Amino acid sequence: MQTPRSRCVLLLTPLMTCWASFAAPAYPPPAGGWFYQYDSSMVNAGSGAANDALDGTCSHDNASDAWAGSAIGTGNHGGASALTEGETAFVRIQDTGDPRDYASSDPGSNLKLLFSRDLSGMELQDCLLDDGVTLAFRVRLATAPPLDDRHPNGGTLVEHWPTAGDGCLIHDGGKGSFSLHQASGGPISFSLATAKGRECQGFAVTSDRDFTSRK
Asked: Is the separation of the CB atoms in 109 and 97 below 8 Å?
């Protein structure tokens, strides 16, 4: 992930999906360069209470995260893994459903995963979403291993991960697979979704705030 500078938070979450992320080397840097660029070769668990997860600058200490700090295929179902395909390094984050219904327990059930990166202190304006910001990423729905099976709510049936991948809609106050949140107002978010069980499919972009309201 790459983004130029403000007091805002960059949110990363799979919700009910699995995706690959990121740095987009083919995207030209904006004037002055990037304020933040995520190193997609790093997936550190961190302490859970400080900004020391993923590349050492992110946090998953929030009410929307229950990551155990484990990679996909190890420990509880789902998780986060640093992977490589050819010369491409990326991060895969998988939320398999509700592992608590399949003998996993909190803390660390991997029920939900949400990582944040505080962008304050980077000479960014508090209203960067109103004034303009560049966010570049590469994202896809994962269809090949490593992938854990799906564990739908209820604990009655474990399912193979869909051959076409899974996805998530933007929900809960505008949360998506990628979100940018400034000091005031809600986020702008981006997600991928498949047709199965969704109201829509494809690449979704939405926001719960009115960007034309600021004068």
From this structure: no
The sign of the torsion formed by the CA atoms of 131, 173, 110, 203 equals negative
Q: What is the pLDDT of residues 125-177, one digit of tens each?
A: 778 888 888 888 888 888 899 999 999 888 888 999 988 888 777 777 788 88
CA 56, distance to chain mean position in Å, is: 16
**Residue 178, strand partner residues:** 12, 190
Confidence (pTM): 0.82
- Cα dist from 169 to 37, 39, 114, 166, whole Å: 25, 26, 15, 11
**pLDDT tens digit string along 197-210?**
555 677 878 755 54
The three-point CA angle 128-27-4 to 5° equals 20
